[in-house]
Amino acid sequence: MSSPFRRRPRIAAGCALVAIATALGSPAWADPTPSFEALLERIGLTPTTLEADALLDAAEARVRQARVRPNPELGLEAENAFGTGPFSGYDNAETTLSLTQDLELWGRRGARVAVAKADAGTAGLRRDLATVEAGGRLALAYAEAEAAQRRFRLAEEALAVTIADTRAALILVEEGREPLLRGIQGESEAAAARATLDEAKAERDAAFARLTAVAMLPAPVTSIDTSLIDLVPPALGLTAGATPQVRVAEAERAAAESRIEVERVRARPDLRASVGVRRYEAEDATALTFGLSLPLPLFDRNRGNIDAAYADFRAADARLMGARQEAEADRNAAEARLRASASRVAATDAGIAAAEEAYRLSRIGFEAGRISQLELRSSRTALISARNAAVDARLARVRAEIDLARLQGRAPFGAPQ
Prior knowledge:
Residues 1-30 form the signal peptide. It holds the Pfam family OEP. InterPro entries: MdtP/NodT-like, OMP_efflux. Keywords: Signal. This is TolC family protein. This protein is rod-shaped. It is built from eight helices and four strands; from the N terminus they run αααββαααββαα. The protein has a four-stranded antiparallel beta sheet, with no helix packed on it. It folds into two domains: 4-69 and 104-267 and 302-408, Outer membrane efflux proteins (OEP); 70-103 and 268-301, Outer membrane efflux proteins (OEP) (Single Sheet), CATH 2.20.200. The model is unreliable at 1-30 (pLDDT under 50). By secondary structure, it is α+β, with helices and mostly antiparallel strands.
């Protein structure tokens, strides 16, 4: 006859198993999210790319505006009118109607257009960089959500395996082949596995919420069916050309250099020409007027703005130098991390196969009474760790691919944009 002390773990475990089965038997999540490729096609609708597009449109509009010449000035001037003596009234007045135009000499217009074009080129490169970075953020959010979903499913499997082992241990306790302590330990392990499952569920829901926001999906993400973390990145090859970050820095340097010429031109006199018609009321006659005007550079020679433009150019040149140094180092590091992550994925896959076989043999030995529960627990823990390590390795490979793709100016797992 069984002791009542030996029945308690089994009864408690049975209640726990019923609760767990009820939770695991809930309806599956529906409406899976679109694939990463489908979401990548909509990357132009994200706020960062829309902002970059708007800034590019503004820069191109400034180029069009820079090509426009200044408007002429129309002037009307009356002299010798409504005074005293012979100048009372308007009979002896002189009225002049003139048209004045800024001639924009010394290459003033060309320098202005060159700066606007340089700024537009920089805005275009920034738009490309924003698109690449948006693709990287999308890939990271997608991969993290998929990894969180996979960890949740692994936690479900780990809980099921732990429950099965606990049941086997309770049977041995009932048969008197294991002490009561083993049953209590089994229940404790099942409770810990359940807590791990709850934590994995919270992480999954948080990752799904982030993916929904990053991808700007109309409905919340509930599951991911198309895998990204299982994709193999493109083969590493010789990377030629500057990174997008360096190209942006080069464009900023060119724009800063063109502003030096603008400030130099502004230091030169701004010549203006005028032509008009003058009416002499007393003689009932008219005559043409001509004129040229320019400021005398006695006080303001634009020295401060010229020096500021040179300083801005030196700063842009320093940023370009730093960007080139960092780009080379970052690219080498990203390639090394990608190679290491590929090796790590292969190693973890092999580790899973070995851990599964070790657990299978341990379970057979435990049920036959040749292996202790501690050895079974150790093999089960190794299997759970190996499966989670495989997910971590795949996520690390995606992150390395995202870093390298950003430096190469392309979408992750895709061709250059």
